[in-house]
Amino acid sequence: MVDTRKQWKAWLYLSPAIVLLLVFTVWPIFNTIRLSLMEGYNSTMAANPYVDHEFAIGLGNFKRVLEYPNFLTCLKNTVLLCVITVPISTLLALLIAVGLHSIKFLQKPLQTIFFMPYVTNSIAIGMVFAAMFNMVIGGSTRPDSVGIINNLLEALGIDYVNWTNAGSKYWANLVVMVVYIVWNALPFKILVLLGGLQGINKQYYEAARVDGTKKSRVLWKITVPLLSPMLAYVIITGFIGGFKEYSSIVGIFGDTMGPAGNPYRMDTMVGFIYRAIGKQEGTASAAALILFGIIFVVTMINLAVSKKKTHY
Amino acid sequence: MKVVLQNLTKIFPSRDKKSNQEVVAVNDFSFEIPDGKLIGLLGPSGCGKSTTLYMISGLQKPTSGKIFFGDDDVTELSTENRGIGLVFQNYALYPHMTVKQNIMFPLENLKGKDKLTKAEKLERAMSAAKLVQIDELMDRKPNELSGGQQQRVAIARALVKMPRVLLLDEPLSNLDARLRLQTREEIRRIQKETGITTVFVTHDQEEAMSISDMIVVMKLGVLQQIGKPQEVYDDPVNLFVAKFLGTPPINVFNGAVKEGKLYIGDAAVLETPGVEDQEVTVGIRPEGFELEADGALECQLSNVEVMGRDVSIVTTHPASCNVTIRSIIDADCKVDVTATSVRYNLKPHKVFIFNKETEERIYF
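YS: structure for the whole thing
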C-alpha cells in the first residue's frame, strides 16, 4: 500500500484521465438518466429565457418511446440485423481465419486485403455498396443500369432484383444490409481469431493427425474449443456493435433510412435516438436507456452461455 | 512388430535462400529394431534423434531411404495409416477435454468396419487407463493433473488404439527428478505388459541405459553405435560414445603407445600388445582405477568425496584433458586425505584407447 500522505501524488497523476472521464462519460450518463425522467424535456424550451419551465418527474418519456409507431420498426430491424449478421460474420470469419492460418503462399497480402474494410470509412463503403446494388430507371420497360450485383445475377440466369430503389421489397433491403454489415464486420473478427489461432500449440494438430482425425472434426473438436475465448469475445462485441447499427444504413439508404417512397423502413434504435435529439431530448434519453437495457441483458445472456461453453 | 530403417536421410532446406546451407539432420541411418523391444535413441541435442522418431511416426517425410514395419514398406504411408502411437514431449493433451475424452478421442476417428460402439470405446479407454493406473482420474481435466499423471494420460491415449509401434519423444524431460525415476520404471512395465515395440528419444544417457533393451547412440545425424546398454558402455566404438555414456563421465588423457606399452606422461600404465607406436587419446572409466601404493599412475590429490557406498577421489594430472580426474573406488579402501598424491593401477578392461585424429577406438 502506498503511504496515505503520498496518495495525493497518485491522484495528481490520475487527474487528467479522471477529469476527461467525468466530463465526457460519467456526466453524460448521469445526465441521460436525469433527462429521461423529465417529462417531455426539450432543449429548445429549456433554453428559452422568457419562459420558465418546470419539467415534471416521471416515466412519461419511456411511455412515449414505446408508443411511437416507428419504435417497433426500429426494434425489429435492429434485432433482426443483429441476429442474422453476428452468426454469419462469426462463422465466415472463423473459416477465413482458419484458411488464412493454414496457407503460406499469399498469406500476408490476403491478410491485408481482408483487413481493408476495417480502415475504410463506413459511409464511403456504404456508398460503394449502394452503387453496386443501385438501379437507374430509365424511360423504357428495362432499367438503364442495374448495378454490378444484378449483372452478376443475370449472368447466372437469375432475374434482376430491385435491391434498394423505390418499390423494392423489405427482404431485398434486408439482404443488402446483411451483406454490407457482415462484410464490414469481418476484418476485426478475422484479426482476433487469427491471433488466437497463432497461439494454439501445433502439437495438438500433430496429435490429431497421428490419430487420423478428419479435418472437419479437427475444426469443431479442437480448433473451435481452443479458440472459444476469442470466439466469445468476438460474438459479444459483435452483438453490442450490432445493436448500435446506424451508419451502415445511412451509408446505403441515406438519412431517410429506407428506399425512396418508403422512408424509415430500415430505421434502427440508434437512428431513432439520433432523430429525437434536437427535438425531444427526454424521449431520446429514454430510448438510449432502453437500448442500454437491451444490450445489457443480451450481454449478460452471452456471458452466462460463454461461461459454460468457453474453455480458458 | 519389427521396425527397419534403411539408409534413412533427412535434409532440411536452408531457411535463408542466399546462403543455401542445407541441414543434414539424419544421415544415411540404417538399423533394425527387433519385435517387442524397448529402444532408446540417445544423443546430445541437435543430433537428429527426434527427427528420426518423427520420420518413423510419419509426421516428417525422409528425404531418402525407407522405413519398414515388419515387411510393409511404410515410407509413403501417411501417419494415420501407420498404426503408431506417439507421446509428445509436452504430452499435447487436449486441454478442453476430460481424461476420458482425451483417451477416447483416437477411437472416435475409427471408421468403416473398425467403428466401435460407445460401450466398446469406453471399455477400451478404461483398460488403457487401468494399464497406466489413472482409472481414478477419468473425469478430470488435464490442468487438474500433475505432470506425471498427464504423462500417463498421454501414454494411455497413444496405447488405446493398440498401435503397432509406440513412439515417445523425450518422455521424462518434463518431470522432476524423483518422478522421472518412477515413471521410467512405469514405462518399462507398460512396455513389457503390452509387448509393443517402443522407441523413445532422450538426451539423458542414464535414462536410456536403465530401461532400454537396446540403445542407439547418435551424433550430428550419424549413427554411432547400437547395442545393449551394458555392451555399449563396456565397448564403445569411439571417443564420443565413451564420453557420452556413464556418470561420472569417463576421464580422458593424452597418451602415447611406445613399444607395446601405453604411456600417460612418463609412466607406462598398461601393456598394449600389437598396437603400433603412436600418440593416442586414452579414456579411463572412473571405476577403472585401483589404489595401489606402488601404482603406475601418480596423480595429485585435490579432494576426496565420501558418498557412503563408495568414495570418489578427485585428482589432477598434467596429461589429463579435463581439469580434474574422478575415480570411484570402494569405501573399504583407505585414502590418506592429507597426502599430496595418490597412485593408481588401471583395470585393463576399463581403459580404452582412441586414434588421436579420427577418435576411433584402437583395440588391443
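YS: worth flagging: The CA atoms of residues 55 and 61 of chain B lie 6 Å apart.
IM: good catch. Also The helical segments of chain B are 49-57, 99-108, 118-131, 147-159, 177-194, 205-211, 229-234, 239-244.
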